[in-house]
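Input record (Table S2, row 320):
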Amino acid sequence: MVLKAEIHCHLEGAASPALVESQARKYNVDVSNIISNGVFVWNDFTQFLKCYDGAANLFRSADDYALLSETYLNELADDDCIYSEMFISTDHARAIGISEQDYIDGIAEGMRRAKEKTGIEARMIATGLRHGGPESVLRAAKYIAGNPHPLITGFGMGGDERMHHPKDFAPGFDVARDAGLGITTHAGELVGPQSVRDSLDYIKPSRIGHGVRAIEDPDLVKRLADEQIVLECCPGSNISLKVYDGFEDHPFMALRAAGIPVTLNSDDPPHFHTSLKREYEIGANEFGLSDVELTQITRTAIKAAFVDEETRKQLLAKLD
Ligand SMILES: [Zn+2]
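Output record (zinc ion complex):
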């Protein structure tokens, strides 16, 4: 049994089709345009974002969010995951018309229930939406900085990487860093190595979401290894979004061989027909990693986790 950890998963993107359909019944909403035969359907990144939003819009109260985070964490714990970081979005709370506080409290309640039942440790990473623009990311950072929560330990940015320049978002990330939050951002997924380099220069993260396209630039690969920037790799997501044609083309093992700390994550699991369990299976079956090497990847994730040192020590001890 390989113990697992996940540091890159979008909470709303982790809602299973079954849970989304049950929420759709609750709110009397037709989801046949995004779910077919129990599976999310979309064809490209733009449609994927639409599908994601359609599912996310069915979580509308603190109770809904407690159910969502509890359900996902219980699923993870069943697959021997001991630690989870989930991206949350206060912009989403605003969009559905509940307060940021209710949204966060609901998620925290689900985390509490899952931990009580399974022992799984979890934290939230607040995120700004890149396609919402720099002002919205700054606003999200200011909210979290002004309303600290013990389970919100990081700040990041997701959304459409093709929009805006990393330097436009520096003010928001400065606010988050000054508030003591760990910093990560999506880069080098849909856009090439320049997006990773610019993110390092202006956003100054300790981790990069994806970052796989750094492989196209040997100098950048060396920089990531020298600075020990952790990559939150999500191979199943990359194949699903056609960043690479197949696992044989995926640079995970090359990045790892170059000395960059790499981790395995599910991103938006049911949308990409994956799970954290499947990502570790991809590690074993497609990349040839042994159980010892997979456990090392879990160790890398926990070392990079946005968590207090006492909790980190306890988590690492479980791997020994
Ligand atoms: Zn992501």
